[in-house]
Amino acid sequence: MSGWQDVYKDLADDDFVIIAAAQDSGGEAVAREWYDKAGATYVALVDQTHTVSSLYGLVNVPSAVWIDESGSIRRIDEGTYATTHKMGDFEFGRADYAPMVVDWVTNGEQSEHVKDAVSLAGLTVADDDAALADPTFKLGVYFHQQGNETKANLYWEAAQALDPSSWNYARQDWSFTPEQAGPNWQKKFETLEGKPYYQPIEGLDVESL
Amino acid sequence: MRSPVIASLAMLLLTVGPGSALGKATVLYQGATVELDTTLADATDLWISPADLNRVNGFELKPEGACIDDICVPVRQDQDSDIFITRSGSSWFNVSELGARLKQAVIADYDAGVWSFGAIPAQRTSLVNQGRAPDFTLHDQDGNAVQLSDFKGKKIMLLTWASW
User: Fold this and answer.
1) Is pLDDT of A129 > 90?
2) CA distance A209 to A193
3) ipTM of the complex
């Protein structure tokens, strides 16, 4: 999150705002540390029930939506890293995304990275099971907040089964058993069989991780 | 999922008797948690007082039906139906049935009396098809309410992340 703080500070454009939403069922208690560490001056929100992900059909984090002055969506659902990161030998993140943001903020409609208003139609979950996953996940969050981990797990696992395309449901659940998160991730990643991690949008040059 | 009118009314009568057995319930919808002190006990559906409808899901019960924005679901209030009944002088509104008519996904934990409702497809369609950014309200880390539409007129990068 500090990477985006640098980008935001350097841009210092009154007509541009970063609104960050922590998709964290742990809420403020978990998110604050990261915002503090980043010295966040952008809008720093806490989103315990993953409201933004479900409203916009975002399947994983980090992700982002570009919204223009009129309220239209101009890019969506990409691996939104401010820079590249190294974890031992494992490199992740991307170096090309932040410059695209800067170019959009600086050049507006003239930027080659800004797309025509992007319909969410291709992104929104169509079948009944996936639609049911969202309230099911939220029921899990409710019980987690109530301290009822048995029921939280029950509904979080049900949500994952109903909508396997969501990494958010799975990774939030795994966060409570960190020792299994790595193997769990690997197993789910293999089911993709090389398909993009994020949901590619028709006509959008999504670069995925 | 829905049983026919007669069957569900019969079940009501069998399980709780007419106009009795009021219970608490919790409704989760659009990030809000609404506690209800009185609901009509039912084996499958959530019957609430019409006075609670607005704070549960934003709908208002008007003479023509249950309405929000340009969506109106017809509701006869002068006779019993599977969406509206009167018992011992009190009226009850079936929020589960409203959800079913709107094709809204819903899941209930009956033991705890918690109902979690998904988005209403018709409310999303216009936004979705036109590429408009759906509005929402969340709180910042200091507890202040922040609404996306507060920033209209600016370029916004809406960024999701997580500690996990």
Assistant:
1) no
2) 13
3) 0.83
